[in-house]
Task: structure prediction
Amino acid sequence: MSDLLAARLTMAVSLGFHIVLAAIGMVMPFLMAAAHRRWLRTGDEDAYRLTRAWMRGVAIFFATGAVSGTALSFELGILWPGFMRHAGPIIGMPFSLEGAAFFVEAIALGIYMYGWKRIAPRLHWWTGVVVGVAGLASGILVISANGWMNSPTGFRWEAGVAHDVDPVQALLNPAWATQSVHMVLASFQAVGFAVAGVHAFLMMRGSNDRMHPQALRIALAMGAVAALLQPLSGHWAAQDVAARQPAKLAAFEAHFETQRRAPLLVGGIPDEETQSVRWGIKVPAGLSVLAFDDPNAEVVGLDAFPRADWPPVTVVHVAFQIMVGIGTWLALLGGLGLFAMRFRPRWLGDKRFLGALVLSAPLGFLAIEAGWTVTEVGRQPWIIYGIMRTRDALTPVPGQVWHLAAFSALYLLIGISATWMWRRQVRHASRLEPPSREIAGWARGAAS
Result:
């Protein structure tokens, strides 16, 4: 295995693991706050128990996410010093602000967990909201740094050195908005359906705990709304990529030849040697409409770029199809769920619908992994698009395979620990006691 491949696989393992924890960290506090708000408004004891259960989940995934994120920061310096030497002064701002957001999140979570009966109940609820907002800000700031890698701005590049650095312009790079919206919606979609699937599973196993139907409604509502908005975000993102990274868009669709009225490819397996696609379905002029809202628009193909600048077409195309396919299914299931909540509540307890939720529980995270593959692999062979190639950013010392083994072992340990703690929490969720008289009185005092 080459050092370059080992280093890229190390980052792939690390990011593939951490991105799941990051998504959970951004969304779970909002689910917790929604249940908490319901308890404060109605005094529903099941809402209180659900709040406490989800609070423990937030704490578990915050702790494991902090460890995995810290390891990633070391990897950047160890594996990619060429990148950090040039990019560090330019994108230092989003990383430093992300650190500040992380500390706000940690402080707010500590206040929330230990603030029961100790601070005003409404203020206590707001600290839970702050946990979510800070986590969301943390994620968006990291996405800003990644957006800069796809659309580098805020500097002048001469003789391999950055001059006239403007960190604010780098922070607010052209790719930031589209990538942030798409990732945030993907996170709400993935976590919403995952949590709904867990509680649907417990209901199918015969649990009569009234906490589970309530949890299913809250999680499904958030996941469904995000899933229905995601196609609009995806269309916006595709048009942005068409303007900034046409080679990436061409890889999305295995679009080998520049042409007008370019077809949209559904499915299929690309063959880069023959520049053809097997078993795909072509929608006439679909890609021209997707990229430019014009069926007669010309879409640049891979033939417009040197072969050395092509992304790995098969990997990018297959990942893109997985992402779109899962997104379409979750949007349909989410739309059905919202219809059921409004007009057919009994459907939410139907075993067929619950079974669909259980089977769909991991799909949102699979879509996130596929989407991240599209973003990162689709940018290759560049680590800074159009400026620095990935191979030129690699540390010159050998032994990258040992880094791969060490970090893989670390993330395996983190994953096992997080899974064990999460499963233990799920098993004991139904044993949570209703609020004591003291807690209930504290909450009523806040409402008044």
Observations:
- The radius of gyration is 23 Å.
- The longest helix spans residues 3-42.
- The chain has a mean pLDDT of 85.
